[in-house]
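Form 7-S
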Amino acid sequence: MSEKLEFQKAVGLQIEKFRNQQGLSYRQLAQRCEVDHSNISKMEKGEIDMRISTLMEIAKGLSIHPTELLNFEFDITASEIEE
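Output:
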């Protein structure tokens, strides 16, 4: 699995965690932000490469700071750059 996909899934797990902690369905969260409920499900599964503005909308819908959705351990290995 690529680093990009792993990162998307990790962000999705954060969204799911906060949504479940608040007892919200996909539709309830969607009503709180400008994101379609079907896309929220896809984000949680890491199937969507979301924009920063979407991350902000999700955070607003969850009443949390956007950094909370990125507060997780993730090992980023530096790629070698050819000169």
